[in-house]
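Shapes recur. One chain:

:::
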Amino acid sequence: MGLLSVLRLLVVFWSDLWSRALGSSCVRRGYHLWIAAVVIFGPLLQYYVNPRTIFANHRNFFNIKFVQSAWGWTCLFVGGFILPVAYCASGSILLTLRHLSRLAVGAAIWFLSGQLFILIENVTGSCYQPVPDGLLLLGHLQDKSSCVREGHRWHGYDVSGHAFMLTYCCLTLSEEMAVFHRYLTARGAEAGVPMRLIFLLNTTLLALWNFMLFCTVIYFHEYSHKIVGAALGTLCWHLTYRYWYRSHWSPGRPGHGLFLKFPEKQKPN
């Protein structure tokens, strides 16, 4: 057996394994509990980990290149997955675009949440000047931008945007990728290696987001800031995937209307 055949078998094996796992509603419900446990109990590990590790530096490579552009990477990978799956399953360009429009909704959530968090920090904060005995309140500087521009410090309620976005991206990836199991079932497990590789790239990104969320809750932000950020990310996911996408005037749930031309195989008596 040649090297290419071995690689192909590995791709098929791992893609089948992960598609079955993510296609299970029980596994996805358990995954939600996992995300909650990481955010709630993960910060306790800060007393047991090395504070000098590279991941404790907010300027580390993964934080700069990936986390700060989390939605951009998620949009790129998920879009590259939805496009071939939706079109190959339905043959409809309009239906494919409708499913891709969920990414536009996610982009709107990313933008509006960032603006909301900035507003919260401005409304709840005050400007301070560092002095030898501590901090001196500066009442004449009423917003963060002017405070920082003057070289001072702004202290407000800083909702963790990283916890918010990583939570939302993790839940979005797991939900969108669950369709692949239905795709394989509808086509009798027939899917080319390129399609399976795209799916595995998305599972790799999901693993990376889980790891970076773990690092975020351990090393960065105050406890309540992380809890609120992750809770808002979960809330946005529920409002879209669990409620809005189930209505007729929405982009639709992942997989909705894609497998109508593939009748389910009759089970043997």
The radius of gyration is 22 Å. The CA atoms of residues 124 and 156 lie 5 Å apart.
